Amino acid sequence: MTQRAPFASLRHRLSERPAETSPAGPRPIQPRPTPQTSQRGSGAKAWLIKAWLTRSAFRLYAFLSARRRQLLPVTTRAANLLDSRLIAGSAGAALLRLMDRQLATGAVAGRLLARLISTTLAAAAQVHLAASRKPSALRAVRILNLIFRGNVRSRAGMGAQAYFTTLALCSAYDRIVRDVPRPEAIDSFAINFAVGVAHMYRGNLAVAAHFLQAAAASGDSNALRKLGAVHALAKDHRQAAECFKASVERDPRSVMAHQNYAGGYDPSTYTPSSWELTNAGELLIYDNLIQLGENFYHQGRYDDTFRSYQAALDQQDALARTWSIPEALVQRIAATSGIFVPGLPVRLLGYEWVTLIGHIGFIDCHLRMAALGMLPRANYVLLAPPSKVVNQPFLRLFATHVTIIEDPVLVDDLLPYQRLVGDQFIAVRGKDGMAEPWAHAASRAQVAWAAQQRGPLVNVPSELMESGTAKLRAAGVTADWFVAMHIREGGYHGDGPGTTRQHRSANVGDYLEAISHIVARGGAVIRLGDRSMTPLRGMTGVFDYAHSDIKSAEMDLYLCAAARLFVGTTSGLTTAVQALGTPMLLVNCISNDCQFWHERTDFTLRPVYDRRARRYLSLRETYRQPLQALLIDTAVLSRHGLDIHPNTAQDITEGVRYKLDCLDERVRPLRDGGPLLDRYHAALADNPYNFGAALPVPAFLERLPELLG
Predict the structure, then answer these.
(1) pLDDT confidence of residue 390
(2) Whole-angstrom Cα distance, residue 494 to residue 133?
């Protein structure tokens, strides 16, 4: 359908449709009936049925999103098929021409084809969303908008609902605000909800309240939550609490505490406590401010993010002045722990800290922050039901530092009290209404830790190391030393080609020269990862552990600890490796967060290219706000005329050579000082903690001197 199509002709013919689908400007505001009065209206029943169907569609999307990783191969194939055969294929253009001819003759077939095409484009958008391809989903609904602009402007029909809903799910809030800039009456739950959310995230709170009140008239729990979030942003906690309470009355399990999306919470199996249900309104202010912060973060809106987080932390402090963890629960914690210190306060770490291996690595830095006095001295209690823990052997290393609660019943009993004493890895308390990013605080801790020459907090047991060595040799790896290499691809998180985060992944081919260099120096290369990665077959000196039969949680830990060098990037595995003190070379690095890397780390960055100025941005330009926050999303960067370029094969090979030479004491490392180090520190003077205690590879800076400004 991307071929030249008679859009102008089609839009003219479609504009001749009956009045309910003809182009129109915004309709005047009409009073929106409440759920009680709407039941007495003549069209209320149909409206409620449509609202129910739309909510069901939202729930289906949530279901698919929760199972994205398992369904990704299927949804990706479906998305590719739609693109090749319809959206970018000749069939789509032929279908449009046929519809145009039928509409010209006034045939009923033309109207049927129009409905078919509208439905197909709406479905295509949903398939692309399921495959994590937001740019492709947006393209589908923009084509829909071009053809059926009359429906979109009149807010009528499934096509209009699909258009606005897809824009909202893709966070294209600016486009929604441009299409619907002011309050108007709309008879669609989906459109009211999408438009209300868009205005909320763009700070137009009065307009957002208008549309979300209309959506909430159906009694939908999620619409009431979003309306409460609008009041929370407006600092009207009384009205926010009323909306949150009403949402829980309609869906009691939705009261389940939320502290980070990574927790993968499942309200459908949760049994709320009476305390939660009674005080749901006030308690959910904290949860929703946290969720708002997370959502602003994924939109690259730095100030909005950390204002929301600070407001959440302020609310947490207020809640802690009113309630505390019941003494009976504290005693149950103490009974499970050999390190619990009576008299010290309890700080809860929710199970978002254990769902990914990098998040377990976060525990290490959180403990370092506490040891340095950046966090309060406390009993740190980790909620870790076995079903949530991604790597038990790694987690067990922290058993002498934190109290680990595995009993699912006790976990559920403690979960609600995160609102009072929960610690998360997104923000710490700041000043002047702005929280400090947790990663920034962790980076400061890493620098202080290195300055005090402290070693790792944890050590891998000798029996696990011996067992790992034996298994590796039995698998045929006999070299005296090895490099563990993680070449991030998009399969695990569903952010590969076609997504807005494909820039975090790399091309395996760019690493082959570096692999050959390692093997030539007498080492082996162990490729880490998962089975979704590109296989490395038939390469001398390379063991493709990601596709091997010896892969296990214990071997993951062993390889990260025993490697002479870890070669990775800005991924979660890096955070786990650094907790073990393993030397690291990190390449193809890009992130909107600070990186709390230890002093045994060297790195190369993905440079940001300005297409308009035809030059690379300096580190000073890239790693400051508001630009750094945008590095999370390539689509947003592209709209600003910016591209992220990968490291070259030469960059990676030179980095490996430099790091191995440093370990062999063949060269003088950059951290020993000199003019290049001085220029680097000057370039990052405004953001000195951005890369923790790590330093860049000298050859990389010399190849791109513009990075130093």
Answers:
(1) 96
(2) 9
pLDDT of residue 35: 39
Cα 167 to Cα 165: distance, rounded to the nearest angstrom: 5
Q: Is residue 637 within 8 Å of residue 644, measured between CB atoms?
A: yes
Residues 6+ apart with CB under 8 A from 115: none
10 Å CB burial of residue 152 (0-12, 13-18, 19+) is buried
Q: 526 phi and psi, to 5 degrees?
A: -105, 115
Give the helix/strand (H/E) hosting 128. helix 108-130
Note the pLDDT of residue 40: 41
Handedness of CA 149, 154, 155, 157 (dihedral sign): negative
Whether 522 and 481 have beta carbons less than 8 Å apart is answered as yes
Which residues lie closer than 8 Å to 213 by C-beta, 6 or more apart? 32, 227
Classify burial at 626, counting beta carbons within 10 Å of its beta carbon; exposed 0-12, middle 13-18, buried 19 or more: exposed
CA 400 – CA 402 distance, rounded (Å) = 6
Kindly write down the DSSP assignment for every residue of 618-664, as one continuous string: PHHHHSSTTHHHHTT-HHHHHHTTEEEPPPPHHHHHHHHHHHHHHHT
Identify whether the C-beta of residue 585 lies closer than 8 Å to the C-beta of residue 670.
Answer: no
Compute the distance between CA of residue 34 and CA of residue 258 in angstroms, rounded to an integer.
Answer: 29
Residues of the chain with pLDDT under 50: 1-7, 16-42, 500
- Which sign does the torsion angle of CA 413, 416, 420, 426 carry? positive
Q: In what order do the strands lie in the sheet with 565-568?
A: 542-543, 524-527, 482-485, 565-568, 584-589, 601-605, 695-696
All residues at 6 or more sequence positions from 129 whose CB lies less than 8 Å from its CB, including other chains: 61, 64, 137, 166, 169, 170
Place of tokens 């039969």: 549
Q: For residue range 255-284, list pLDDT tens digits in order.
A: 999 999 999 999 988 999 999 999 999 999
Please give the helix or strand (H or E) that residue 513 lies within, else none. helix 512-520
Cα gap 297→656, rounded to integer Å: 33
Enter the tokens of residue 535.
């296989």
Determine the 3-state secondary structure of 137 from DSSP.
helix
What is the Cα–Cα distance from 699 to 658, expressed in whole angstroms? 8
State whether residue 686 is helix, strand or coil: coil
Q: Which residues of 299-315 are buried (b: 16+ CB within 10 A; e: fewer)?
A: bbbbebbbbbbbbbbeb
Contact 601, 385 (CB under 8 A): no
- Which residues neighbour 692 within 8 Å (Cβ) at sequence distance 6 or greater? 442, 443, 446, 447, 594, 595, 596, 597, 598, 601
The string of pLDDT tens digits covering residues 82-114 is: 666 666 666 666 766 776 666 667 777 767 777
Reduced 3-state DSSP string for 68-90: HHHHHHHHHHHHHHHHHHHHCCH
Cα distances (Å, whole numbers) of residue 565 to 454, 481, 659: 20, 9, 8
Q: How far apart are CA 116 and CA 111, in angstroms?
A: 9
CA 179 distance to own-chain centroid: 27
Dump pLDDT digits (tens) for 238-247.
999 999 999 9
Which of 46, 59, 40, 15 is CA-nearest to residue 188?
46
Cβ contact 526:508 at 8 Å: no
Q: Are 289 and 448 in contact (CB under 8 A)?
A: no
Across the chain, which distance is largest between two alpha carbons, in Å? 84
- CA–chain centroid gap for 91, Å, is 36
Residue with tokens 């629960």: 329
- CB of 372 within 8 A of CB of 404? no
Q: What pLDDT does 634 receive?
A: 81
Q: Which of 347, 336, 337, 400 is nearest to 370 (CA)?
A: 347
